[in-house]
From TrEMBL:
Taxonomy of the source species: Eukaryota, Metazoa, Chordata, Craniata, Vertebrata
Calcium as UniProt keyword: yes
Major localization class: membrane
Positions with biased composition (Basic residues): 872-883
Functional note: Potential calcium-dependent cell-adhesion protein.
Protein name: Cadherin domain-containing protein
Stretches that traverse the bilayer: 818-842
GO molecular function: calcium ion binding
């Protein structure tokens, strides 16, 4: 390009600048240095008076975009939407930002801001004037300053002192020097230079005498004008030297020279001349640079100490430092040096190539601007700034593009151009441009440079991705492996390039655990699905293209999770506890078992079964109700425990188990059973000296029921004196809770004799209480003087009905004669009875005995074990049976109150267990009678042995027994029981409602004891039927046989009886 062409280009550029002045604006702000972050500086929108025309429709919202140079650290921040200007976290340091411009004393920071969009585009150049703050203290170059002054120095002579340096300017710069700890010989003065610098000078105020004092030490202080001021000090040491009459004098005190910036190293800059009027060594002059010049200047220049010639020490650069100021000192070695100032001006040469600074308005990607093919005309792309560090014509730069492109450079400021679109763009015609920007100066020869701007045209995204179908149906079995691939989803886009590249994502309604590959569209599930938690999933998959303004579409995915048999049946409880009354009928409802299965279909069909209790219980397959297959008896078994198994219909099936415990709740179905007394045919001795309130004996009963059904209360329902002929007077009382029988009053003579107490024990069961009756005999006397007499009285007590008093036929003392006659008659009668007894004894040992034994075998335990059997059991050392095997059946008594309150009329009938009312009565095993004996209960039969007879009999069932309300007189163990029975030749017929009669019985003789009867340590039992007008006479009984067969004997506190002896019912025949 020739000079004419360059001139034409410059003219066009100048015209364009005039036209574009309306698009470029400038704005100045002032900001102090060292401000913290987010300090508001101004509002660009308000200060530019940007009033938007409502009629102008903007393609995008108003935006203020700073155009920074690549790599610049922004010192201010412009809010894009409001135009507010704030400081950033990068603090402004004036001394760093504007180093080398101290002479001008003004420091600026410039940025350009583009106002977008293109409809209202303008470029704003903002200049920030940085105000100095006093953030630097003035400092001396050395902490110790040495000055040499001759002793003959005249008063008011001035010597320069090296000045301090302060990078701050203006009032914040150096303002004052002063001497601290001064002496009278010296003073300090300050000289201000034309540039505004302040230099301190030391003034001699008195004559100096080296012989008196050769050294003066002071402190000099420098202070700036900041608020508050900053200062520093240095030691000023003055040495008095020998007489030196004259000091050097420069020929030129100030010298200014010009040197081209390309001067070679070693080139001479200037030569200084000085003279000294002294002679000899005092006239030798030495040249040197003052410490007041900058370090950079000292690096670029050197001075010869002898000749005073200044030379170039390092290459110079006018663009860095155009002016250097040198202070040269001339000293003769003893006097104060002289000072001269040399100003070196560097002249410009065309040694700098123009530079191009591209600041993109449109964000670039990897150095390339992406521009839509639909970009409008005049769309601003970048701000191009061209500069040349050279001066004058060498610094004038022209900027242009090297060939025809649909873009142009539009000047806005001096040496600044906007790159914008100049013609419509077409992606299909050309997809990218490499624009070469050329900058050329006016040097001879001209220097030029170039830069490339890469622009890629983007395809306009105007096609939406499309799916082949609107909905996708899927299914997957549950418990899948993680990361299982479900399907590959594909869509198409009619655009090209990035606009046709699709990204697949899950919609916002997609549940956790599902993933889709963004590129391939493969849909997968990243977790195990559980149908029981969620069976169906419905969500969307989105296909989005890569357009700058992306377009998207979606498809609905419906996923069904197929069931697997992965859940076992679940019982609502691991253990079930049911409570049922013991009278619950057969197949009644015990309780409901609830079991569920979280699976579906056949996998949730559950079958229940009982594992270890199927013989006793069954479970309804439909309702899951447990029903008993047995009748309950709490006294035999209080609870049942078994396992219930639940199996589902899956393949393979799964199984669960639950424990079921059925607790049998007590029903009042057991009468109290007397344990003490263990025999009705026994007595206790009550001495006449016994104190009232003393316990003379006690009764004790047990009840196999529990709770209130086993709560027992004792009472005396009647009391009779057997041996006297007077009516009882309530001599004894019983504690209803403990059964202790106590003496209520002191014994008198009329109370002596055998007392019979009828004791009733009653439980507190509901709805109807049950009871039993026992007899207590108390022999009130000092001693047992006649055991036979007492036995006779006991026999009479046993023969006396409960509703009759033995004293009904009272014999008065006046009739004692008649008693003697009766005794005589009885004695004669005894002889006859003895014969009959022997005859009966013989018959009892014959065939009937064998027949009874056989019948006993058929009826369970109705036959007494013989002595031989007992011996066999003893040899085998079997365990002793619990006391409940020794309990007898009961005789029930219908109770009615007579008109005479002194006596109670009691009708008795034989009451057998309920089981005997059924057809298997003849086979009933009496040893299974329910009981509540605990394992540690005492075996009461161990307290005694007896010689009581043991007759045998057989009861035949005829008709069912009608139930009656009743009391009970307990039958106690026969080992200690005096038993009477019918003669085998006599036929006994029952006149009561009792359908059971004695089919066969045999006894011989009357009552006979094996020895003297002592006071009762244990209790003997006797069963009687009080409806008889008289009981069997002693001729009907066979105690000898009973003693022989039973192997027992009467014993007051003898050996313990065997607990495995069988129990017999003693039946009393009607008259």
């Amino acid at each position: 390009m020739d000079l004419a062409s360059q001139a034409q280009v410059l003219l066009l550029v100048s015209v364009s600048c005039l036209v574009m002045s309306c698009l470029a604006q400038e704005r100045d702000y002032t900001v102090k240095e060292e401000q913290p972050e987010n300090v508001r500086i101004g509002n660009l929108r308000r200060d530019l008076d940007l009033n938007l025309d409502p009629a102008v429709r903007l393609s995008s919202p108003l935006q203020f975009k700073p155009v920074y140079k690549t790599g610049d650290v922004p010192l201010v921040r412009v809010e894009a939407g409001t135009g507010e200007i704030f400081t950033t976290n990068h603090r402004i340091d004036r001394e760093k930002l504007c180093s080398g411009v101290f002479a001008e004393k003004r420091c600026y920071y410039e940025i350009e801001v583009a106002v977008l969009p293109d409809e209202i585009f303008r470029l704003v150049k903002i200049r920030f004037l940085i105000e100095d703050v006093n953030d630097n203290a003035p400092l001396f170059q050395s902490t110790v300053i040495n000055i040499s002054i001759p002793e003959n120095t005249a008063i008011n002579t001035r010597y320069p002192v090296p000045s301090a340096f302060d990078p701050d300017v203006g009032i914040n710069g150096i303002q004052h020097y002063q001497l601290v700890k001064s002496v009278s010989e010296f003073g300090l003065d300050i000289i201000e230079t034309p540039e505004g610098d302040k230099w301190p000078q030391l003034i001699v105020q008195q004559n100096l005498d080296r012989e008196l004092k050769d050294t003066f030490v002071m402190k000099i202080k420098v202070e700036d004008g900041g608020n508050p001021p900053k200062s520093s000090t240095a030691i000023l040491q003055v040495t008095i030297s020998d007489v030196n009459d004259n000091r050097p004098i420069f020929k030129d005190g100030e010298l200014e020279v010009s040197v081209p910036e390309n001067a070679s190293v070693g080139a001479s800059v200037a030569q200084l001349h000085a003279t000294d009027a002294d002679l000899g060594s005092n006239a030798q002059i030495h040249f040197s640079f003052s410490n007041q010049i900058s370090a950079a200047t000292k690096r670029h220049f050197a001075i010869d100490g002898s000749s005073g010639t200044i030379t170039v020490k390092q290459p110079l650069d006018r663009e860095v430092t155009p002016v250097h100021k040198l202070i040269v000192l001339a000293s003769d070695g003893s006097s104060a040096p002289s000072r001269a100032t040399v100003t070196v001006n560097l002249t410009d040469v065309n040694d700098n190539v123009p530079s191009i600074d591209i600041r993109y308005i449109i964000n670039q990607v990897n150095g390339t601007v992406l521009l839509s093919e639909n970009a409008p005309l005049n769309n601003k792309i970048a701000l191009i700034t061209v500069t040349d560090k050279d001066a004058d014509l060498y610094g004038k730069v022209a900027c242009y593009t090297d060939h025809d492109v649909p873009f142009r450079l539009k000047p806005v400021f001096n040496d600044q151009f906007l790159l914008e679109t100049a013609a419509p763009l077409d992606y299909e015609t050309k997809r990218e441009y490499a624009i070469k920007i050329v900058a050329s100066d006016r040097g001879t020869p001209p220097l030029n440079t170039s830069a490339m701007v890469l622009i890629k045209i983007k395809d306009e995204n105007d096609n939406v991705p499309l799916f082949p179908q609107p909905e996708i149906q899927l299914s997957i079995p549950e418990n899948n492996d993680p990361s299982t691939q479900l399907i590959k989803i594909s869509a198409t886009d009619a655009d090209s390039g990035h606009n046709a590249e699709l990204i697949y994502t899950l919609g916002p309604d997609a549940p956790d655990g599902f993933n889709i590959d963004r590129r391939t569209g493969i849909l997968s599930v990243g977790k195990r699905l559980d149908r029981e938690k969620q069976e169906r999933y419905s969500f969307t998959v989105v296909a989005r293209d890569n357009g700058s303004t992306s377009l998207q579409s979606n498809v609905t995915v419906r996923l069904i999770v197929q069931d697997l048999n992965d859940n076992s049946p679940a019982f609502t409880h691991p253990e079930y506890n049911f409570y049922v009354p013991e009278n619950l009928p057969l197949y009644g409802t015990v309780g409901l078992i609830t079991v569920t299965d979280a699976d579906a279909g056949d996998n949730a069909v559950i079958t229940l079964s009982i594992l270890n209790g199927k013989d006793n219980f069954l479970i309804d397959p439909v309702t899951s109700v447990i029903k008993p297959n047995i009748t309950f008896d709490r006294e035999q078994q209080s609870s049942y425990t078994f396992m219930v198994k639940a199996v589902d219909g899956g393949q393979p099936p799964t199984t669960s188990y639950a424990k079921v415990t059925i607790n049998v709740v007590d029903v009042n179905d057991n009468r109290p059973v007397f344990v003490i007394p263990s025999s009705n045919y026994s007595y206790d001795l009550v001495q006449t000296s016994t104190n009232p309130g003393a316990v003379v004996t006690r009764v004790f009963a047990i009840d196999n029921d529990t709770g209130m059904n086993a709560e027992l209360h004792y009472s005396i329902i009647s009391s009779i004196i057997i041996t006297s002929r007077v009516s009882p007077r309530g001599l004894f009382a019983i504690d209803q809770a403990t059964g202790n029988i106590t003496l209520q009053e002191r014994v008198v003579t009329a109370d002596q004799g055998l007392h019979r107490l009828v004791i009733r024990v009653k439980d507190l069961g509901q709805p109807e209480s049950l009871q039993a009756i026992a007899l207590i005999h108390l022999f009130v006397n000092d001693t047992v003087y006649n055991a036979t007499y007492i036995q006779e009285q006991l026999r009479k007590s046993m023969e006396t009905p409960l509703d009759r008093n033995i004293g009904d036929n009272e014999v008065t003392p006046q009739a004692s004669g008649y008693v003697i006659v009766v005794i005589a008659i009885i004695a004669g009668t005894m002889t006859v009875i003895l014969v009959i007894f022997v005859t009966a004894l013989v018959r009892c040992r014959q065939t009937p005995r064998h027949k009874v034994v056989q019948k006993g075998k058929q009826s369970g335990e109705w036959v007494s074990p013989n002595q031989e059997n007992r011996q066999i059991k003893k040899k085998k050392k079997k365990k002793k049976r619990s006391p409940k095997s020794l309990l007898l059946n009961f005789v029930t008594i219908d109770e009615s109150k007579p008109d005479d309150p002194a006596h109670e009329h009691i009708n008795g009938t034989l009451d057998l267990p309920v089981e005997l009312e059924e057809q298997t009565m003849g086979k009933y095993n009496w040893a299974t009678t329910p009981t509540t004996f605990k394992p540690d209960s005492p075996d009461l039969a161990k307290h005694y042995k007896s010689a009581s007879p043991q007759p045998t009999f057989q009861i035949k069932p005829e008709t069912p027994v009608a139930p009656k309300k009743h009391h009970v007189i307990q039958e106690l163990p026969l080992d200690n029981t005096f038993v009477v029975g019918c003669d085998s030749l006599s036929k006994c017929s029952s006149t009561s409602s009792d359908p059971y009669s004695v089919s066969e019985c045999s006894c011989q003789g009357g009552f006979k004891t094996a020895g003297q009867i002592t006071t009762r340590q244990v209790i003997h039992d006797f069963l009687f039927k009080p409806t008889h007008t008289s009981l069997l006479s002693e001729s009907n009984c066979c105690p000898q046989r009973g003693a022989a067969e039973g192997g027992g004997r009467w014993h007051g506190a003898g050996e313990l009886s065997r607990t495995d002896r069988r129990v017999y019912v003693n039946v009393i025949c009607n008259e």
